[in-house]
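Handoff note, outgoing to incoming analyst
You'll be picking up this chain. Sequence as last confirmed:
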Amino acid sequence: MGSEKTNRILTAAQDRNAYVWNLEGEEWKPALVLLKINRAATTCRWSAEENKFAVGSGGKVVSVCFFDQENNWWVAKQIKKNLPHTSTITTVAYHPTENLLMATGSTDSHARLFTTFLKDVDAKEKRSDFAAVKGDWATQGWVHDVVFSPSGKNIAYVGHDATLYVVATDDATKVVSVPTSCSPFKKALWLSENAIVVGGHDFTPVLFSDKEGSWKCYGKAEATEKPKEEKRTVGTIQNTNTDTGISSRHKNCINSIAYYKQSSGKVSEFVTGSLDGRILFWKVAELEKAVPGFQA
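Most recent structure output, in case you need it:
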């Protein structure tokens, strides 16, 4: 996970370790992070000001880390009071402008919103309880991704139940759910304050928008199955090794979505990565033409 402001790289892995990489001259050098976890690290994310970060783990805890100048290493304070998470944390996300707010998703089928005030990092006037739960929302399946809108006013989360959930950051009771007939979702990206693209086991992006006043699924970016061919005559040889029956450009699960071009919180082009080994680029303007009714 790269940091745009400080030009550092954050990595975390199943060996229960995390490192912050700093560019010194032409060489990237790692700095140790004391995570204090007893299970694999599963996800990580920088805060808005990039002076702290969060690491989720299979040990049901989130480590919120900051730099200890005196000892020259990164140390962690953990969210584990009363164990709000009862299973693996699959995703973490920080508010785009507010350094205190962090959202998580877990295989306990919940998305949550926490405060992460650290006295050594955050301004005193923003003092609040560490790990205070500001929102806790149940779903019908594992939560795979949680993302804040560009302004931070809303949070979207998706998961194994193939439903998009949108909730207001300042009002935990305002939850909108948009169920679909799609396969499980893995990743989501806000294209603007009014549009979201989701990827997962359908092998192609799925588009959502509330331009018409309420959140709605406008369908897939492209067809995913080839039209059925007419029956072949007896004796015709069919090559079954190359014909997958999948017409979408991706041939496997989409497990990564990121913006490629954006301005003032509005994405004009995004990129998807898949288990098929492909990285594909998508222009929002072309999707608006291809998918009836969709507007970003």
